[in-house]
């Protein structure tokens, strides 16, 4: 009798686990699967300089002014030193940047999400940003406090891309049937994607607050699941040579890899000249990047960029 009860309990447990697994996988694989065939773009590249020069100088200036990037940085109290470095460096180049924290922190101004669950923080931050700024900004960039971003390169990459289309781009990774943008390299959404996402945040069948019943799905995968239901798919951002522009590691790590793999072509094998992000930086590395990207200049060299992105009014950027 005891062995029969034991077998029954084991069967119940195995059956429950199997059902939970199917449910979790279903969240990833279902939703507009047939629309994948109509997905027009997958590997996105910036406009080339020749095409930019075909546009009149006045029109270029007007277009450059029309790019308004709102930056979202998700932080926790343990990130205070990174928080300070990000605030003092690259976020000055966003048209507006705000920090979203897991709890109230007196040291820095932030928006309290009242949760330390990263997916819930991300959901709430996107909802807040859309509700408050949907009329003011047309591109939304989300990053970790370990990320360094070159916002001018982001604007250059987005130049001539229509924000009324559902763009969701960065460094893409494939996991089973799901392709998602890694949060390690930063995530960019157009205003149209934000609109579609926010229409689903209140629909738990399509955009659940909790991902898996057995193990937790990362927040960037959760986002991809929700966006997939809205007909928005991950785009890999590359330069004209096919190199990633949203990078999930630091410059130092990429250089080390290039030295091992391509010792004769370290620079060419490392990174794109138009890189938008690097990740995994310490506070000191943030300041070094700021110096190299924005302050160091070679005397006698004049750079005639086809586009100029002016800083936001009242900003104290470099």
Class by SSE composition: alpha/beta
Percent of residues in beta strands? 5-15%
Chain-averaged pLDDT: 81
Distance between the termini: 77 Å
Low-confidence parts = 1-41
Main sheet: which strands, in order across?
1-11-7-10-5-2-3-4
Kindly state the percentage of residues in helix: 25-40%
Summarize the main sheet.
8 strands, mixed
Shape: globular
- Secondary structure tally, helices: 11
Compressed to H and E, one letter per element, the order equals HEHHEHEEHEEHEEEEHHEHHEH
Number of E-type strands: 12
Radius of gyration: 22 Å
Description of the molecule:
With 318 residues, the protein is an alpha/beta fold. The protein has eleven helices and twelve strands. It has helices spanning 2-29, 49-53, 57-66, 80-88, 118-133, 151-158, 191-200, 219-229, 251-261, 266-270, 283-295; strands spanning 43-44, 69-75, 96-101, 111-112, 139-143, 148-149, 168-170, 172-175, 178-181, 187-190, 235-237, 277-278. The strands form three sheets. The protein has an eight-stranded mixed β-sheet, with helices on both faces. It has a two-stranded antiparallel sheet with strand order 6-12. Strands 8-9 form a two-stranded antiparallel sheet. A hairpin with a 2-residue loop joins strand 8 and strand 9. The longest helix is centred in the N-terminal third of the chain and has 28 residues, at 2-29. The radius of gyration is 22 Å and the shape is globular. The model is unreliable at 1-41 (pLDDT under 50).
């Amino acid at each position: 009798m005891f062995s029969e009860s034991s077998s029954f309990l084991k069967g119940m447990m195995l059956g429950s686990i199997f059902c939970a697994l199917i449910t979790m996988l279903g969240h990833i694989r279902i939703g507009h699967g047939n629309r994948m065939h109509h997905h027009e773009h997958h590997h996105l590249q910036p406009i080339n300089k020749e095409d930019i020069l075909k546009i009149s100088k006045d029109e270029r200036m007007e277009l450059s002014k029309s790019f308004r990037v709102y930056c979202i940085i998700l932080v926790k109290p343990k990130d205070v030193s990174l928080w300070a470095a990000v605030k003092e460096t690259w976020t000055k180049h966003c048209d507006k940047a705000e920090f979203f924290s897991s709890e109230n922190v007196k040291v820095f101004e932030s928006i309290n999400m009242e949760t330390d669950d990263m997916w819930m923080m991300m959901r709430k931050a996107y909802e807040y940003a859309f509700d408050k700024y949907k009329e003011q900004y047309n591109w939304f960039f989300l990053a970790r406090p370990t990320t360094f971003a070159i916002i001018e390169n982001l604007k250059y990459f987005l130049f001539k891309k229509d924000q009324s289309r559902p763009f969701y781009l960065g460094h893409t990774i494939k996991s089973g049937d799901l392709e998602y943008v890694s949060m390690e390299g930063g995530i960019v959404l157009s205003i149209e994607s934000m609109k579609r996402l926010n229409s689903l945040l209140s629909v738990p069948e399509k955009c659940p607050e909790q991902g898996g019943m057995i193990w937790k799905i990362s927040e960037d995968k959760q986002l991809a699941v929700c966006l997939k239901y809205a007909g928005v798919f991950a785009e890999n951002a590359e330069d004209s040579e096919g190199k990633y522009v949203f990078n999930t590691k630091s410059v130092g790590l990429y250089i080390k890899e290039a030295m091992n793999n391509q010792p004769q072509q370290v620079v060419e094998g490392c990174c794109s000249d138009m890189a938008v992000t690097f990740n995994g930086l310490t506070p000191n590395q943030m300041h070094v990047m700021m110096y190299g990207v924005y302050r160091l200049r070679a005397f006698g060299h004049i750079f005639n960029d086809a586009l100029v992105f002016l800083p936001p009014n009242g900003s104290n950027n470099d």
